[in-house]
Structure formats: C-alpha cells, structure tokens
Amino acid sequence: MSTLPQKNPRPLTSCPGPACTQNMDSNGGAGLRRECCCEPDQKQSKLYGVGDPAAMFSCDSPYLSSRGNIIKWFWDSAEEGYRTYHMDEYDEKKNPSGIINLGTSENKLCFDLLSWRLSQSDMLQVEPALLQYPNWRGHLFLREEVARFLSFYCKSPAPLKADNVVVLNGCASLFSALATVLCEVGEAFLIPAPYYGAVTQHVHLYGSVQLVCVYLDSEVSGLATHPFQLTVGKLEEALQGAASQGVKVKGLILINPQNPLGYVYSPEELREFLEFAKRHALHVLVDEVYMLSVFVDTAGYHSVLSLDRLPDPQRTHMMWAASKDFGMSGLRFGTLYTENQDVATAVASLCRYHGLSGLVQHQMAQLLRDRDWINQVYLPENHARLKAAHTYVSEELAALGVPFLRGGAGFFIWVDLRKYLPKGTSEEEMLLWRRFLDNKVLLSPGKTFECKEPGWFRLVFSDQPLRLSLGMQRVRQVLEDQSPVAKNPPSCQPQDPSGQDK
Amino acid sequence: MSTLPQKNPRPLTSCPGPACTQNMDSNGGAGLRRECCCEPDQKQSKLYGVGDPAAMFSCDSPYLSSRGNIIKWFWDSAEEGYRTYHMDEYDEKKNPSGIINLGTSENKLCFDLLSWRLSQSDMLQVEPALLQYPNWRGHLFLREEVARFLSFYCKSPAPLKADNVVVLNGCASLFSALATVLCEVGEAFLIPAPYYGAVTQHVHLYGSVQLVCVYLDSEVSGLATHPFQLTVGKLEEALQGAASQGVKVKGLILINPQNPLGYVYSPEELREFLEFAKRHALHVLVDEVYMLSVFVDTAGYHSVLSLDRLPDPQRTHMMWAASKDFGMSGLRFGTLYTENQDVATAVASLCRYHGLSGLVQHQMAQLLRDRDWINQVYLPENHARLKAAHTYVSEELAALGVPFLRGGAGFFIWVDLRKYLPKGTSEEEMLLWRRFLDNKVLLSPGKTFECKEPGWFRLVFSDQPLRLSLGMQRVRQVLEDQSPVAKNPPSCQPQDPSGQDK
C-alpha cells in the first residue's frame, strides 16, 4: 500500500502509524506526503492495527545510524509541509493572501492576557538556586505548586502530593520517557483512534515503542450513544488482536478531553477503561492537556485524579502541560502525576534530558499559584473566547450543511467531509486537503489522526476572529466549488451527533 | 569484581563504566556505592576498556521495563550520595558543620554578576512567537546569535552559520541525541579516560550506546610531555581492542578543555586526533563546555572551530553550553555546531524532547549579544576569581606536599593522593573518599572518571572563599591524620607535572 521505501517490512505490520503527518500540532499538519498511504485496509473489518514506524522511511544518510535515519525522516516528512506553510504564512498586512493555519492546535486567543501576566515583575527572579543544577524531578517549590494546582482543578478527593509530581519540558518528553521506562523495545501501547498523531513519534523516536490502534468509527450502533465511542469491548478486541500478532501491550493511552474529537470521557467510562487495564495489568497514561480548555459547562469533564478510588493507582499516570490550557506551547512545561515512585524515579532519571530552566520553573510556580488571576481573569475570558470562536465556526459549518461533532472541549472541531469524496478513499482525502492548501487554508486530514474513515478533518478554531473568518471563507470556497457526491452519512445527520454540549 | 547484581553479563565487558558514580556534576559526586567496583583490572596492561552499563543494576521494579530499571538504578545510585550531601548541606549560619561540596563542577563565583545581568529589563520579553511552538532547531534569532558568538570566541577562520546551529536544553541532551542518531544500539564511542563520567549515562540511558575507554596514565614516558597524555597510538590501540571484542566504534569524544584534567589540547594534537578519526570514518564529538573558563592566558586554548581546514568536517561536531562558562547549569542551554545537515536535522528531530522555553531563548540571545558586558565585565572578573581560587588551592596543596596537575582551565584540580593508599587499590580510594565525607567535605574520586590509577581525586575550587577555605581545612585534616605510605610517584614529583600554566 505504501509507496515509501520499505525497510525490513515486518509481517505483523498492518499500519505504520500516522508517520506521514507528524508534528501537526507544531507545523499545522503540513507534513503530508501524498505518496504516503498508511490507513488500515478498508476491506478488512479489523478493529485494531499495530503501527511500526520503523518499517518505512526515506533514503539513508551515510552519516546516520538506521534509527538516526528514521528520526531524520520524521523531521523531513514534517518539514516538507512546514516549509509550504511557513514560506507563505498569512500576515494581515505583509501577506494577506498567505496561508491561514487552522491545522495547528494552539490557542491564539489569549496572548494579551498571558503577555500581561508573564510581564509582571514577580516573573523575573534570578537567584543562585535557580541557576544551579536542579533536582531533576523539578524544584520542590514548583512541585508543591503543581500538586496544589492539580488538587484544585482536578477536584481530587484528597490533596495531591509533591512527591508524586515530576516536572519536565512538555508532554512530548513525558510520552518519550514513559514509553522507555515502561516498555521494552518493540512493545506497545493501546490507543483509541482517531488520536493526536504525534504520539506515534513520541513513543517511538527514542523508545522504539509501537502503538496499537483501537479503531473507532462514526456509526452509532448497538449501545453506543455517540460516534467514535470507545468501549471496553473494542479495547479487549484490540488487545487480543495485538497478542495474536505477537505484540506485547504494556499500557493504554487515553487522551481526555479527546483530541481530535473534542469529547470528554464520563467518570463511568473512565472507570471501565481503568478496570479493563487493571485486569490486564496495563499501565494507563491519561493525557489531560486540554483539561482547562473545556469551554462548555455541561460537558461534564472529570479528571482521572478526581476518581474516588483508582482501580490500579500504581499503574495510573496522569499528564498535564501548560501548552494548551495556558496557550504556551513554546514555554515547554509539562508534568507527570503518579503514585508509583518507581515510575516517577525512572522518569526523573531521564529528566536530565528533559529539564526546564530554573527561571521557567519560577515563572510557572508564580503562574500556577495566582489563583485569582486564573479564576477571575484568565479562565473566564479564555472560555468565553473559545466558545465564541467555536460557535462562529459551528454556525458556518451548519450553514454549509457539513456535519461535525460538538465536543465542547479543546481547540478544534472534528468535521465530516466524507460527502465530498466520490469514492471515499484516503487518496481523495489528501486531494481535498491539497485543495484547501491551494486555497490558502491549512486543515488536518483524518489520516493525521489515524482515522479509519477517510473524509474527516480537524479544524482548529482558536484563532483571532479576522484570521478565523478568512480561513472559514476559504474553506467555504473549496467546498462550494466541490459538489457533494453523497448525502451525509446516516450517523452524522441531520443534526450534530454528539450532544455533549447541549 | 562487582558485587552488584549482574544482569546477563557479557563476556566482552571488561568495565561497565563509571556507573557507580553518576551525575557527579549535578550531585557533587556523592553517588558512590562502596560495593561497586568497576575499575579496569589492574593486573592487565590493556589500554582500553569497553563499558556496558546495562550489564549491572540493582533490584527490579515489577512496574518498569528492563531498561526502565537500569534508568532508575542510575538515579538511585546517584541519589544515595545526593541524599547524604543534601541532608547535611553546609550553610554558613544554619549548618556551619554541614558538608562542603568540592565535588560538583559548578562555578559559584559569579552569581552576583549573572544575577545583575539576567535581571535587566531586556531579559523579560513576552511575545506570541516565544509562546508558540518553536522551530525545534531553535529560534532563528538565537541561532544567529550563537553563530556570531562562536565565530568570535572560537576564532573561526570564517563566520559560522546559523544553519549549522541546533540549540537545546543542555549538553547532556546533546550527547543523548548524537549517540542515538549516530550509533546503533550497542555501538560505541571512544573516550580518553579519565573523563567526565556522566557521559556514560548520557549516551546509554536513551541511546544504549557504550563507551570504549582509552586509558591514560600519569607516567610521562617516551615522547610524552605531560601526564595522562592522549596519543594517536593509544587511540589506535583502543579502537583495535574494541574491534577484537566485536564492538563497533562509531566516533570519538574529546572534551576540551579536559575534565577532570584541566588541560587543553594543542592545535597540533587536535588535528592529529581528527586525522585519526578521518582515517577510520569516525565522528568526532568535541565538547567545549569549558572553553571560556580558561583562566590562564598561556594555556593556549584552541577551539576545534578555529582550525583552518577540518580534516572531516561532515563528521566533526562541536558542543557548547552555558552551564559552565556562564555558571548557569540550571538555565539548561546547550548548542550543537555541525556542518553536517543530516546530523543537524536528526538532532533537531529529537529536540522535540530537548526543547527550551522561548523565553529562555530570548534571554540567551540577549546575553550572548552583550559583548561589552561579557568582555569588559563578566569574563575578566570571572577569570580573575577563578585564578585566585585556583592559586589558593594550589598553594594549600603544595603546602601539604600533595602533587597535582595544573591545567589552567575548568573549575577543578586533578589531585594525586596515591601516596595515601597503602596498597594502591580502588577500595582504598573509596575509603579515603569516605573519610573526606565523614570530615564533611565532598570530593570526586578518580573512579568517578574511570581513572585506571586509584588515588586521584578531582577537587573543585570555583566556590566562594569562605566555603573554599573551610573545605580545604577539612581536606588538610584528613590528610594530616593519614600518614603517607609512600613517596610521591616519580611522574608527579616534586613539582607540578603539567607545566601548562607556566
């Protein structure tokens, strides 16, 4: 299926993961290679897929090791699109016909608030302890602040402890470290798909760990209440499927709120998944980087740390970062919360390579402890702006007759454009993506998220009104030029399917 | 030889590296386990040793992978000593009988200068681009500044280029990334020993790369002009020895100025080593983190970037950081300079996991461009203080009749205490180290640096006068209580052996 050079293709590899579209949260999903075709076989009904990114990459450099070449390939494939976008980036005055980026999941709505807070005089503190070698778990003053912060915002039944906190330079690093300390080379994590595709490289580049996709689909059947619903049955099936292919699964990754769906798991669902993991002695990595970006009150978000009694606390590891909830992906702050001291220690040992500046640790502590500003200024304003942008894009999509999910969390809408693909193939999805790009608007196609149904796109709405409306205008132009070839699929029409924000 | 649990001991392993004393630049060399004995066999005359840190580690955690357990072991073994020191840290007022740290290689002499500079208003700039996803190679404004900075201070024959710069959060990360992209699992780098022992874990924890030690000794024989002199002959011998054990060597690590020796390589030596590497198609990683900490004018330091024509520029990679030369190991800034774009790109791809904050990138750029402050304030004062501290310790050691090398660079003196070891064993070296610690002064024993001659210690002098004199007083007490059992060895008496700072 793939036209990329195959390197020692392994028989068990049914899908190499979304390797072709890496880094879409940092380059706007522009890293797409048309020749890369790695969706699961549409003809088979398998509900899982084992991804081995090492099975394919581009031409070798004689200076690099084989893994060095794979690592470089991940960059190059992303770089291709990155260059496309950055060579023609939209600027209101300098390049008004440049590309509008509705692909990168960044919150660009609150720089005014953040710039003000980060420029206050309490932020610039320089003392010897901050300039010297740190404790690689993070300075105690910051870990204490993180524990208090998570206790409050995750609504933990008891105060969380600084000893269970490890801070580092972002959740990408945390995925890398956890994959390495929990798995042997070639072992795997389960992950429900569609999922934030960069996880593929985060667990693979250093850790050589694979992902086993638990494929979800949009059809609402049986006991399901919404599209792309994860169930324990699907998890069991994927786990058995991996085992049948000789792949050892060591854990389950849950992203909650979900990216790209925008849904949140109910406490009951969470508990079921944690019980499933406990039965199989699987670690659970719960990535909650959008936990404060739930902008619809009725979404009913619950952190894993809010649960009264975790089924398997020693194998439950929560991740959070400032990238999304504080719109600062460039600040590089992430944190692990785990009761397992072996895991915390092993991750801390790798934090020699994921350390963040003492000066930034001071800034983060100041930010996290400023509960007045967060509660009375930042969060209300941020949520209001997110909601307004979401409402605007929702209405635009509705006017276009395009179905989409309404999750009420995150910076994106998961949009169903399947009716614009005559044959419903992945190649057509890429053609449509190219048409958007040719019309100077960047979206992320479903393939980026390992979605098994071609035709879904993630559209990021957390941008300034001017850019957002121009971007939507360009989306509209492409779709209006392109007659739909079918009605909306039954599962996604006529109204929005999720109902989570009703 | 080792009493630590052996895990799949490999026949080719003659020395597991200084695994017992990791992280001594971040915890003061306190991570020493008396039961760990990993020096090369004194009875054999081999001038090399292949280190496989995976061959030994402590008890397993059921929650971690085998590599996770090794990673945790590296932390625990360091932590043991770290706790000892930090539980009883010296404080002039609060704990005057606490431990004085002359083990950690940090420059504590210039916090006043640095605090002043970093507190200036130009340092706190918050703009959207700094808060958004960066180019993982580093912001262009910083890479341009680094290129100008290195051009000037390394005296490059032509201006260096921003395209050849990759910035990340410290040289530890850079070792990790380079090891991974240049070597397959189990391959190796040559490194002259004694060497900064943390390199062992930097290339191993993520990269599973080994070090092949090129053992140097203190005897000045043949054409040698100073103790611990590296020659091409020794490099060739180690390379052949590794090959004979089936270990593939991919590169050579040179630390210049040398840690722990304090020497610098002459341009002629550098060129010879680079020619050797070229003959064998080896990469050369030149770690120059102490390049601006040469406090003796006559030391004659030359950066690898100052050479007129590199023998193999595509395999020559220079490393620098702010940790030592700007006394800011907690700031987490390091940089790679390489003409090899494949290597730069592959390292940049891993920089997703080694990124530093946009705010810190701004601060570093401001610092590096402030040539007036660096040249007229910081460097002269820093060098004067380093020199004064070095002179003080040198005189103390001379008064004690203790030989030592005078390198004229770095923060440390390599001290010959062999005459205090009755049998000249590694166990006695550890006993002496314990005696120092019991007398509340922390030094780093030669084992930490994989020195094959027991009895050498690294003593860090870059501390405030009060702490330094108290530390030296405690050193003196231990040595005066301990009669020397032998004369100073011929190579190191009566005067200082190196003569490099004469």
Automatic annotation (TrEMBL), chains A, B:
Recorded hits in CDD domains, A to Z, give: AAT_like
Q: Which UniProt keywords apply?
A: Pyridoxal phosphate
Q: Which residues form the Aminotransferase class I/classII large domain?
A: 99-461
Q: Where is this region: Disordered?
A: 481-502
Bias-annotated ranges (Polar residues): 493-502
Concerning Pfam families, the annotation shows:
Aminotran_1_2 (PF00155)
Q: Name one molecular function that GO assigns to this entry.
A: identical protein binding
* InterPro entries per UniProt: Aminotransferase_I/II_large, Ethylene_sulfur-biosynth, PyrdxlP-dep_Trfase, PyrdxlP-dep_Trfase_major, PyrdxlP-dep_Trfase_small
Q: Which GO terms describe its biological process?
A: amino acid metabolic process
Q: Known PANTHER family for this protein?
A: 1-AMINOCYCLOPROPANE-1-CARBOXYLATE SYNTHASE-LIKE PROTEIN 1, BIFUNCTIONAL ASPARTATE AMINOTRANSFERASE AND GLUTAMATE/ASPARTATE-PREPHENATE AMINOTRANSFERASE-RELATED
Can you say what this protein is called?
1-aminocyclopropane-1-carboxylate synthase-like protein 1 isoform X1
Organism of provenance: Erinaceus europaeus
